[in-house]
């Protein structure tokens, strides 16, 4: 009976257990996700004098963009610029270092390559907090304290384990026959990497790009510990600072939050599929 | 024919090539075209310098006294004996463990159900999944700032809707409430990630299993417990490892939302490390705290990874 009804709708896969429960749960979660985001937007558009008195759930009676103007005038663009530099440099470093590692892990079946792979696998478990004191020392010794480089280098290093995992799982699915065909044509490993592995791993590479950009864009601990001056301040630290600085000006603070998210949202709009497919791969069996 | 003789061929070329590690032998069709392990060296060095070496340094520093300005002086086991007798650390360790358990209990069922649900291919699920994803794009800082505003007892949303659920508007001012809030905010942020992991695991379960079960007359519930859950075993491990390491290292949320308070009731291990190290400049002791943290975090992950065989190199498409 149920087999008939599923057969009648070819687009739908059979079973889908626990659907009513999970479906209802999904709706509840939708509210849990959207309510804070809705409040974020509506508060950021509310006049400050109305924010303290009105119902925070009601849409702004008299929407205004003044809060955004105020935030932009408070040095927000410097924060944005610094963060962009950090993000771009982090992504570049992660790709340059991770692609060869993943390539070796997949293509070289030696004990050494497994050891390399395992190192990164374990690296996933190193918490940034655990190394922040020695990093502070190391960065100071290298004369990089309070520079953007002090943020970029550790951020990139800490994005590498996930990058290697994602790239490895994508590259593993490239068929051996393609490599054999290229080998018959006399291709060397570098050419295979460049003309076969990299183009075929585009999905994984996009994931790594977005993932490490996200980490750099959203990182807090490294900037907090490894920089100091206002000139080197990134967005997350800026938000933290605004919290004290703006005092009760919650609408402005939330406008700053919205502004800090816009670039990432934009990237997400264009690269959603790549990111999501890649992240799903991390948990694959 | 070629495939049949290949192992033998490999053996021969391997023997003929002698000690040379590179196997680009003239006749070795399969053995050729593989990159040397040396290619991984730059990545390994970079990762080593900024992640592995600091890890070692942290252990070294935990045996020193260091104020961040002068050079570290070795003090033997002082920091470690102090650690195990320090009521603040013991409380922080207890709070971290509690936070981890609460986070796991909260996130795993929700993420699992959402993931299983989202693995269906209908359009509405795709759209909803895209919405669910949004919190992952916000930085922890942004999220903490946002929830700090939402939970303001005087003009935040909690003042309006808290009472509906019996929630004290001053939730951040109560010790249990503050810890639960930290767990909730973390879950709010990372749920999409774990949902995706489960969704990915779900899509890899061969449909044949469900078809066979349906023929045998197994209902949805039975299918869930007899097929879905066992098949997702490795996925649960992956997700749990990440969750545990994640909640052991919550920091931004605590710093921004509660400053470890009320009192020291949300001073979890990473926050204690920060306070001791970068506010009291007792960096040797902070290193001991950090080392203890990493020992626990990696210990737990290793245990779980070993337990489940997640580390095995297997193609995701193998056997399908």
Automatic annotation (TrEMBL), chain A:
Subcellular location: Cell membrane
Transmembrane segments: 21-41, 84-106, 115-136, 148-167, 203-226, 246-271
Domain ABC transmembrane type-1: 80-271
Keywords, sorted A to Z: Cell membrane, Membrane, Transmembrane, Transmembrane helix, Transport
Pfam families, sorted: BPD_transp_1 (PF00528)
Gene3D superfamilies per the UniProt record, alphabetical: MetI-like
Family named by the database record: Belongs to the binding-protein-dependent transport system permease family.
Name of protein: Carbohydrate ABC transporter permease
Gene source species: Streptomyces zhihengii
Automatic annotation (TrEMBL), chain B:
Membrane topology per record: Multi-pass membrane protein
Record Pfam families: BPD_transp_1
Subcellular location per the Swiss-Prot or TrEMBL entry: Cell membrane
Main location: membrane
InterPro entries with a match to the protein in the record: ABC_transporter_permease, MetI-like, MetI-like_sf
Top-rank taxon, per record: Bacteria
Transmembrane stretches, start-end: 37-63, 97-119, 126-151, 171-193, 232-251, 283-305
Keyword line: Cell membrane, Membrane, Transmembrane, Transmembrane helix, Transport
Stored SUPFAM superfamilies: MetI-like
Domain ABC transmembrane type-1: 93-304
Ranges for region Disordered: 1-30
Protein family per UniProt: Belongs to the binding-protein-dependent transport system permease family.
Listed name of the protein: Sugar ABC transporter permease
Taxonomic placement: Bacteria, Bacillati, Actinomycetota, Actinomycetes, Kitasatosporales
